[in-house]
Amino acid sequence: MSTSVYDSPVFHMACHQFDLVADFLEIPESLRDRLKMPRRALTVSIPVRRDDGTTTVFTGYRVQHHLTLGPTKGGIRFHPDVTMGEVAALAMWMSWKCALTGLPYGGAKGGVCCDPSQLSIGELERLTRRYTQELIPFIGPQLDVPAPDMGTNEQVMAWIMDTYSLQIGHCVPGVVTGKPVGLGGSLGRRESTGRGVAYLISRAMDTLGIRAEGATAVVQGYGNVGSVAASSLAKQGVKILAVSDAYGGIHNAAGLDLQALNTYVAQTKSVVGFPGAEPVSNAELLLIPCDVLIPAALERQITGENASKIQCRILAEGANGPTTPEADLILEQRPEIFLIPDILCNSGGVIVSYFEWVQDLQSFFWGEGEVMDKLYRILEQAFNQTLQLHRKRAVSMRFAALSLGIKRVWEAKQTRGLYP
User: Fold this and answer.
1) d(Cα 236, Cα 215) in Å, to the nearest integer?
2) Domain layout of the chain by residue ranges
3) What is the pTM of this model?
4) Is 67 helix (H, G, I), strand (E, B) or coil?
5) Glutamate/phenylalanine/leucine/valine/L-tryptophan dehydrogenase C-terminal domain spans which residues (predicted)?
6) How far apart are the first and last CA of the chain?
């Protein structure tokens, strides 16, 4: 099947990963396109009236990868580099992630090609509501449930919920997750991805016999995921040596004061210029010697050029697709590096999004302790299953995680059959 509409390095990367696993699982060629290609892909034009009276037309996307196990689930990102191919790749990875963790979802992803930092609050709201209006026939609690991603947040989800509810005629909190708690959001949702990353790093440390007290970590991408993961690790005694964001990075060999850093970031909106630390580029940051390296920024950060140079014991992929296939080949020849692959490492967000969706459908809400306990139980099971397959079949942790997720979707499609 032609993939031209999704043509992008990220989508080709996701397809390459799938093809390797499909060979390993011996999935018949006749079924591979059905598993790989998205079920639906939507492109919309979004005219937005600017504060100065002019109108700008933005382009938005939504991709639903498969609907075999339930409604689709996936974030919405507002970013200047959003493309159809990127969104399709992220939707595919979300499918394998949901299947790996046992959630009754297919994968989805959406995005608008824009720079939210260049939009006023009013413009951002008008953009969000018009984008939602275009998606009305394709989203819903039993069809497709969006969530926050890069460039979006609780407020954006509240606007989506309100726009959808006004069209339907009654309040529908289950149409999105990642909402404010007062509108049906779940306690612990905002912190869930970062806490999940930290939990799995702790499990990897246990596996490798590394003590958290005195261990070191480097975080590329000090946003919601990276900052929460760093704070969670610091509470366990891990020293955070360096962090970065889209504007640059900072490094202190003695460890960063995260409490002071978080206060600084809240004031300046960036880590750059933080007192008591040396500047470092995002590229240089990846090569700093450490026990734990957490790429929690964009895709394709660890490549064939730098994979042989990174110096860590644990590579924890907080971002989606941060490691290219070329880098994977190099990492497979470096057994001293323990990989926690993205579809496992950052799955905490979609797991707690699932909890939020369940709570909204029941109109019965849980305490934060209950949410976190359920999250860690699911992560523990997924980690153990992935580790077991990794050891049993002598394959990489990424290969093991993808195999588990893809196999479950494949088996579900086989059992349901093909209509008509």
Assistant:
1) 10
2) 4-171, 190-345
3) 0.95
4) coil
5) 186-417
6) 20
Check if 4-171 and 190-345 are the same fold: yes
Question: Any catalytic annotation for residue 109?
Answer: yes
Q: Does 353 show up as a binding residue in the annotation?
A: yes
The confidence band for 3, taking pLDDT boundaries of 50, 70 and 90, is low
Tell whether 73 is in a known binding site.
yes
What number of residues does the chain have?
Answer: 420
Tell me how far apart the alpha carbons of residues 112 and 131 are, in angstroms, rounded to a whole number: 8
Residue 25 contacts residue 403 (beta carbons within 8 Å) = yes
Token pair 């470096």 is at which residue? Answer: 334
193 is in an annotated binding site: yes
Q: Please name which of 174, 179, 187 lies closest in space to residue 360, comparing C-alpha atoms.
A: 174
| Cβ–Cβ under 8 Å, residues 354 and 72 | no
Active-site choice (36, 109, 179, 239): 109
- DSSP at 118: G
Q: Binding residue per annotation — 392? A: no
CATH class of residue range 190-345: alpha beta
Strands 106-113 and 72-79, sheet pairing: parallel
Protein fold of 4-171: Rossmann fold (3.40.50)
> Where does 117-215 show beta strands of DSSP type E?
144-148
Look at residues 243, 232, 219, 237 and name the one whose alpha carbon lies nearest to residue 191: 232
